[in-house]
Fold each of these.
Amino acid sequence: MKLKKYLTLTRAGIIEALQFRLSFVVMVIGNLLYLIVVYFLWKAIYASAGTDVVNGMTFTDTLIYLVLATALFNFMEMYTVWEIGRNIQSGKIVLDLLKPMEYRKYLFWSYSGSFVTQFFLTFLPTFVAVAVVTHGAVPMGINLLYFVISVVMAVSVNYSIDFIVGTICLYTESIWGINIMKQVVVLLLSGATIPIAFFPDTLRTVVNFLPFQSIYNAPLSLLLNGSPDTETLLTTLGTQLIWCIVMMAISKVFWKVSLRQITVNGG
Amino acid sequence: MSAIIEIKNVSKEFRVLNRREGLKGSLKDLFSRDYKTVRAVDNISMTIQQGEIVGYLGPNGAGKSTTIKMMTGVLEPTSGEILVGGNVPYKNRTKNAQEIGVVFGQRSQLWWALPLVESFRILKDIYQIPDEKYESILKLYRSLVDIEPLLHKPVRQMSLGQRTLSDILAAFLHDPKTVFLDEPTIGLDVAMKSRIRTLIHALNKERNTTVILTTHDMGDVDALCRRIVIIDKGRMLYDNDIGHLKSFFGSYRTLKLRMDGGLKEQAKLVQKELPGFSVSADDEWISVLVDEEKAKIMDVLGKLQHSFNIRDMQLEEISTEDVIKKIYEEGVQ
Amino acid sequence: MKRKGLGFYAKIYCKILAQDLKSKMSYRADFIISTVGMICTNIAGFISFWILFRNFPSINGWSYYEMLFLYGFSLVSLTPVQCFFDNNWSLRQNVYTGDFIKYCFRPINTFFYYQSEVFDIKGLGQLAFGLGTLIYSWIKIGLGFTPLMLLKTVVFMITASLIMIAMQNAAAATCFWIQNSFYVLDLAFRFKDYAKYPITIFSPVFRFIFTFLMPIAFIAYYPSLVILRPDKVPVLSWLSPVIGIAFFWLSYKIWMHGAKNYSGTGS
């Protein structure tokens, strides 16, 4: 029964998403274009390197990694910061706070519909296409299961980060500035634009201690590694889980504290 | 007097998308779309003289805004001819814009973050208003309203009434031949409404500016217009002197009642009780249209009180909607 | 009525621009955060560039510093679109809410009036960043310096800017016809990220596409060849000013046509 109220939001989200068929076409073209550029760019890079393996990744590995990172990005992008920011500025937030649901959860489940559509309309086709085109370079085994588990945690970490950044909008009107900062930092440090394996050593060490690599690098490296040893597996998933919990806690507390501050001061 | 606006057999059609409902409907919309043509304005003709104030009335979606957009050159009519001050608006949009002023609904056209006087200065340049003309109009404004406190206040800090006032002043700034006012008094309190009406009236007198006024408020019409034009569903229903219309409807008032039980069913019973009266019901009220020459409001109320448990009542002047309803029912000669 | 010549429009532009700056000053926090956001974007872009290419002396015959030159060139040529045509991003919102109508009532060109309303100072940060990169790589490559080169650089940068402006205008104008035009605009905006790579890394088919169908190569590659490789400048480079003007004119026509077309729908 409890699930049903969430699923209603999911359904509404699906209907809403389908209203915009053109945006799908444009999005597919956009991603295709991006992938074409990525393909040729990395081809040129590998050609210049003179070896087949750079930083432990072959050309195919890198390509699969980046293609799926894009697909994951589209899958996870919820424009949370914009949504929260706009709701705060328009005052709609007051209505949302009155709903018999925690705001964090309400916002998440309102978007969950687009998870479903995005999964079937972009992620799955991309995944199948990549698997076919690379002639089975994507290992198909138990790693798929690890990948799914890892993605679920990645979604959670990503949402928590978004929500934390969104909460900042309670203090400032500058949604654009806040959002762009978050976006470039997350995309770069999570390994979404360049695999973390290519980072210089010091930077890689730093990045490994940050939550961002849990979003793209963790699930994708689990997927590409056909038979990870138990240690790698446990470290990757374990780190993700820790970040999952930590970020969720921070986002909850930060929201609560901020909201109290605002209501007390009558913002 | 000379004709400033001439409209001949003007129609405007739009193509709208039919959206299907539900999950299945949206899936279908993804692949095929179904358009239908809507006639927003249907064969309208009128001539307006320089210096007239014309009330342009009709319910929501009647085609008022569409007509105004055609007169301002924003829209091109599907068929028919429009001349505003000798210009074909959509062909010479900028030339036409130089000679008209527009206040559109509650959308301010002023610069949001700037004090009013800064907006005026930009408009002065855009409309190429000579210095002496600009000064003289400001002098006129000073004599009509207390604008000093407004001039140095950013528009975003103004109240709705002050903003509307400012928008109207901005629209008259370049001494246009015609000004279009769309719902200028909507959402304002009684005192502000009256200030705005006085201002419009004075500007019309001083400058002999033609004013086309769309409104839902019969009070605006009463205070300002000698002539009214009514349209509904894109068709012209009425174009004549307001006195003529008043002789038909002036003595009507609407008695609004709230009572126990379902309003729709109750309305039917009320109708049975009051044969010959026009009775209708919406979500909140049962409305009875009373012709005070034939029956006294108190008598009607007394009669109803016997058979119904009335919990609340209101008395309203006749609204545009009522007028239109009456025109449909009885027609105007 | 006096004729409205260039002088008239220049005067109006300055007036409206001054008002925009004044209003921006009343939102100082927003301005600062947005500027920091913009700087972050540029730094992140630079870091990505550095991570990718630092290990390779050359990519496909292009030295590291030549690549950097292209990068700087694209940043500088993107400044005008950022500074002067930023209001394109709000067009969708204006059309959707019906507020766009107010731009149609004035006795001046609608396109001009609309674009003049916003001047985005943030773009200046990008300009500084781009100029720095450009000068640094210019010196490192040892291109030398003559007044003629400076003239060429300016002319071809304007050319490059016109192409990007044209693409943004056309993309923004789609909102007059379709609902969710954000994706189109975002797609066109992402073109700038692809502009910084030499077109020779692509296969002939895509070289053709990126030259003639989606003229991304004109944003930096072709115009900068005039400076970078003066001994073998392709015809297309010399043609790029003409192409830039043509595209800009075309996009203006599309935009204006859309504005006319739009007025039909909003109420």
Amino acid sequence: MAASDKAVPAGEQASSYWKAGVDIADAKAPAGPIEKKWQTRQFEAKLVNPANRRKLTVLIVGTGLAGGAAAATLGEAGYNVHTFCYQDSPRRAHSIAAQGGINAAKNYRNDNDSVYRLFYDTVKGGDYRARETNVYRLAEVSAKIIDQCVAQGVPFAREYGGLLDNRSFGGVQVQRTFYARGQTGQQLLIGAYQALERQVEAGTVHMHTRHEMVELIIVDGRARGIVTRNMVTGAVEPWLGDAVVLATGGYGNVFFLSTNAVGCNNTAAWRAHRKGAYFGNPCYTQIHPTCIPVHGETQSKLTLMSESLRNDGRIWVPKKAEDCAKDPRQIPEEDRDYYLERIYPAFGNLVPRDIASRQAKNMCDEGRGVGPAVAEKGPDGQIRHVRRGVYLDFAEVIGRLGKATVASRYGNLFDMYAQITGENPYETPMRIYPAVHYTMGGLWVDYDLMSSIPGLYVTGEANFSDHGANRLGASALMQGLSDGYFVLPNTVNDYLAAGPFSKIGPDTPAVAEAVDAAKGRIAKLLTIQGQRSVDSIHKELGQIMWEYCGMERTEQGLITAIGKIRALREEFWSNVKVTGKNDDFNQALERAGRLADFIDLGELMCVDALHRRESCGGHFRAESQTEDGEALRHDDEFCYVAAWEFGGDGGQPILHKEPLRYESIELKQRSYK
Amino acid sequence: MKITLRIWRQADREAVGGLQTYQLDNVSEDMSFLELLDMLNEQLTAQDLEPVAFDNDCREGICGMCGVVVNGAPHGRYDSSVPTTTCQLHMRSFQDGAVIDVEPWKAGPFPIIKDLVVDRSAFDHIIQAGGYISVNTGAAPEAHSTPAPKRQADRAFDNATCVGCGACVAACPNGSAMLFTAAKVTHLAMLPQGQPERMRRIKAMVAAHDEAGFGGCTNIGECASVCPKQIPLASIGQLNRDLIASLFKGDGK
């Protein structure tokens, strides 16, 4: 089959879940050849005189790579910056957990790398669903990120000559990934954090930790402020300024279990969405095949193991379900099913992430999973116990190369695995299972990173722009820092040049209304006093999302999921129990507010997945596959960004399409055979 | 497993706190210590009691947000066979029937916010004083213009792995944050980019450390023994050498 084959038409019921809106365009990317666009935009953007910058206030929510870097840079430029984060310090942001590395087109290896090649790889990796102009700029500024980080004292891995080391990552054929052992995210975040703290000392940045954004303030059509809840005292208060930046990360925790930090949430973005910011491609999530499996019902989060393990480990499950509880070392070779090697003889254990993930789920659904049997609610509503894990076996490579060589390659990962599971992976096969890792979708932004609300900017994982339907390894850190250090600080001035905007205060009607709305919502959460804990409802939402909007989606499944989510929303607002009061440090209240927004987002994700009747990147629609079970894109119908407008509580979301135009790159169907 | 927890409960900064005892059944040895607290909180919520407040975020040992004193040792160092953060401490480290004491970090500069949650903003203040290299965005030279010898770069990295959890302070009989301060000082002192501000940095950071109310270091070494990232005591030696050198040099060197 070819990519141009028509997609299966949507059923009548499916298309009743959304309304069609008008197409949109990214109006800010200038005309001209792609390699000149960013330069042109920087030249055409209006500037703010250095003497006027301190009169302009920028509010930045989230202080990870994208927010911390932007705050530091705008502070250096002389703007009056306020930052907000839910953690006790910006150094905690979940950017810190990224292991692998950061890509940059330095071509230090003299291996034919270039800005164009990084751009090309990223667009192709995104399965041709990213915006070309943004991705080119990302590749263009990537080299400067490395310069900046080195100057800040980020201790990247070096060679004996004192120069930076590189490795190849994520299946690309050049060595362009810079790394700091398995802790690259940590080191880059600490660099941005230090730059931010320097500006705090300089008095340009005012840092507000343990403050959670609970509402966006719009005055005269412009984003002018936010409402926060002080997580120590419970005070709900407005903060006003000339522009608002959301750098609040991804929404993987809609699945309850993910590799995100437990506090990661989508409330800031969702509050903005409700006030008019379009949400781009919400169904694009990345599921990573090599995570440590769930141990039981009390599991609170999942931990990623580097994908490099698949280079040497062999993945298998028992052929017979009755062997699944046995010690794997007692299962003879002929009773093992090395299913990836069997189904995909050419690529074997190195098939792409989505395929490795989907097949692991299939094996466990068949009843051939391994590890502890964990209770879950099936589609029929019955509780069943399923083993969710497959073996990743290193016995063959240890036999071939010796334990010492394997330890030198994967020692830290084996130690981490042993610490979490209590099992020794040198002796017994690892158990792995896919987990939600990254969300490519996010608030829609234009070339300047401005959302559909004037004055509201969105950076990093929180926006949708650079990764299309699938993110390549080592490109999340690159995007966060590109947006934070180089893009936003050179585009926000175009908007701020018209400021300072009209004087507003706590008594301005729109401000008072936003504060009252936030307070009313908190009061409502505290008065329900039902029977169910916040976490029990969140886990149920996670199971619905994982079952129907996870690795494989179908029209019928998504319709079922939407029905279940609506019922769960009723359950939440009538039967949740939030202990304690507002004027206190109240973690149950924090979680309840976040979950309420996750429930609404979950429904939108299902609607987006329902409307996209093609498979692309991390989104696999069962109705759109080749005869061999490969993902099948439909470029003629779906080569666009789905930007969703909030349709009101209980209303249908409105779909605006931003057509994707590929002028520099030719569209191709992915093939791994 | 059956576990008895004796947890420090304190309503707010000014309140008088105390240990309260809770019983948990059906604890799995695969659970992390924080999942045990989650389980307790679900139980308390079902009983209409207020859950225990505790800080945590990444739950994979890297963000530094979590940290409690378990059986008298930060991050449960006496119970765990390897250095770890609290989130990577697992219940298989404990015996069935164990009685476990859980307390917050106890140090003057870390006031208690509620139950097991403390205010560690004093750490941010130490970094603000000089824990950085002054380079504005866009002003950086080409990354390869200054090679950094691998041995020193590796030592910089080892010190840069500090997660800022505060276990070193909680373990120190003097309530000193010298290991935290030394980790940052050593990280930046080992790199060529860190040299221009090296002397100014150390004076400013040590002054901020003292001003925050942290105690002096008397080389006891409890800090390094509980450090989840194994920042070595030798880093404090590096700090002391640099501090003495700085006394003979002007701010700009």
Amino acid sequence: MNFSRRHFLQTGSTASLAAVAVGCDKLEVPDALRIGPRAVAPPDGPFATPTGKDIDLVSQALNRLTFGARPWDYQRTRKLGMTEEAAFAAFLDQQLAPEKIDDPNCENATRRFELLHEPLGELFEYQDKHLLDALVRSTVLRAVFTERQLYEVMVNFWSDHFNIDPSKGDAKWLKVADDRDVIRAHALGKFPAMLRASALSPAMLWYLDGRVNKKANDADKPNENSARELLELHTLGVHGGYSQKDVMEVARCLTGWGVQEVGRSKLNLGSVEFKPYQHDRGEKVVLGHVIPGIPKKANAAEIEKLGRAELDTVLGIIGLHPSTAKFIATKLCQRFIADAPPAAAVSAVAEQFIASGGDIPGTLRALFATDAFLTTRGNKLKRPFHYIVSTLRATHATTDAGSAIQDYLLRMGHAPFHYPTPDGYPEEAAPWLGTLLWRWNFAVALTKNELGNATKLDADKLRASFATEENQMAHFLGRAPTADEVTACKESGAPLALLLASPSFQKC
Amino acid sequence: MSTQTSITGNGDNLKTLVVVFLRGGADGLNMVAPAHDPGYHNARPRIAIKDTDTGAAKLDGSFVLNPLLKDLATPYHDNALAVVHAVGSEDATRSHFEAQDLMERAGDVAGGWLGRYLRFRGATTTGALSAIAVSRALPESLRGAPSATVMRSLEDFTLGKGGGPLQASLEKLYAKEHDALGNSARDTLKALSRIEDLRNATYAPAHGANYERDDFSQGMKQVARLIKARVGLEAVSLDIGGWDSHITQSAIMDPQMRKLNTGLSAFYRDLGKTMEHVTVVVLTEFGRRLAENSAFGTDHGRGSVMFLMGGGVKGGRVLTKWPGLTKDVLEGPGDVPVTINYRDVLAPILQRHHPKVDLAKVFPDYELKPQVVYG
């Protein structure tokens, strides 16, 4: 439903005049006058739920490829195919083509954060804390409301892989652009393209000091921070077969890139620039590849061209390197299969990563086809962000992702964009085991509607979405409840809170 | 030490760090006065502390305690309390907000130093109650901790009103889990039930310690109870606000010093030998100007004091690179310069508590010059 702005303003002003005229404070805005797409109501219940005593393939898909099942997701996904396998395949096809999925509810939920769409330089017009709040809230809201769930899961994955702490310097403003133009632009694209976008992201150049890596004279020592993390965290991995010498050589190749800074220029603020006179023109050797020196007689334009090209040469060497493939494959398998994934799965994924030229959807298809993925179910601990989002989805709660939600994420040490070091939040279970008390408290607060005015659930409506109490339990558990779980629910006096606090709901 | 075993996952030799933040810029020169420095008396003709003041305990040849802090002389003379003087941060804005922010975050980096300490302390597990802020909101210093609790009192540790049956049901369900999640759940449930016991029992502080009724003393009392109950507490943050003494210094600072004095000394008595495993650190965002102003107050300055108590710190001394108070050493508008950076005092303490702590991640972009805090 696309209105022209003028059309909207006209109808909008008519509506507000009408409101004044009747003095009505409960004016129902007609759908035609709403901004943005029409909200899509969920299908009518009661919904079918899993019946097996173990997690089936459809629940596995909803557990791992999404931030958790909403009340109708199991039924809707299961209907995509005659068999579980066919349904899973069809769901995967849908999720790997996010651009074809309509997403009106998510658009509506995040529409207010228009500032996140501002061009690079305009971001500096905002207070950094407002930008961070908008970024955190829209991230939570997207995870809760988007239909493009696998895309959002991958955004979450790459945000950790290319972690930036927006506390540092101009990253306070520039992380917004990085989230949009690097992470979201490439989350289901090609890895080499994402790697290049990240290496030239102004926020990353700030965060890893790439902007001060220069060789303007003999006394200048290149800053290795950016080169080291590029090799250690973004591509090859710490045991990926590079030496300290390689780090130094890569640092030399990357000299000269900078960012237009606050206080220096009002024009092109935050944009990336290459300064030929700060580039190291000598010969370099990176992982055995010789990168010839720039001829002494080269003019400024030639230096610029050759100097810029060294970045691409380096990325060409490491972007699809076997160590990179193994490192990325291992991290993906840790995310989607198990904290310690089997080697066979990692090799299969790594092979496809190389064969497909780092095509992320292709690599994910290979992962989701491994025996390890298909058979390892219910073993991963949800990280706190996943946990919180999955409770909101499972209960079909409304939320504004405001301070009540963010407080819990902060207390559990997992608020988006709050991780200090470039390795990103840990994926494995151990560091998150201390958060149980806050998960339980959150379950209680949510089910008692004690999370402020904007986060609410309707327990009666939820219950009416399922034919029986046991169906409702199966929705939360992704399988039929055990006798112990049925008893515990009855005895707890708070069945919804118990389900959200139960061991099975902590896992995926 | 209590006979109760520590809740597993946190080690049996668990140490607790208690950080007390004096918000508002507490005047170190008024708390621990350089009473023999003529520059001090010349600059503060009306408000200086004299070593002849009743109750002003002599610490060493140079400094005396404000009489309102007189009970801190006991741990000092037990060699369990050290004063650090002319200490602070590199922030020279003299803005409360900026200086508190820097001191709690310790750099241009996500989270606070206490939170990063807990994340990078080199332990594999973190208990449910490893970090507690006795306040209304999570302080900046604890941001980024793997698990942080905000509480006003023990009453906050429940699974909601009437949560008993829920807790019992969770206990049954998690009893069937034999993995790390199950272990962690059992630890958490154990901690909840210990706190439940504490809530239902009246608490008798040991050794005749007497906690006053103000928030700080009550907070310290709760912390003492939790430490004795061995629920796995590793880091605590408490605040005393209201140190911004621009006018009538004594009217502003005296009540706050009374709170600090009684809270710390009651805690010290109450814990007794357990103090060996507990380190209390008191700090503030900046000190005050050397010279008093026309309103019997002092304005924002730079260096102030820290107090370090318990945990084996080498007490009974004033740890300082005292710059003197002559005009040529005063900074900016006439302030005691910072000659010791607070990170250099904290670093050895964090290392003592967790020898494997990654200090470069706790205090990034700072070259540590650790002070000799231990003997």
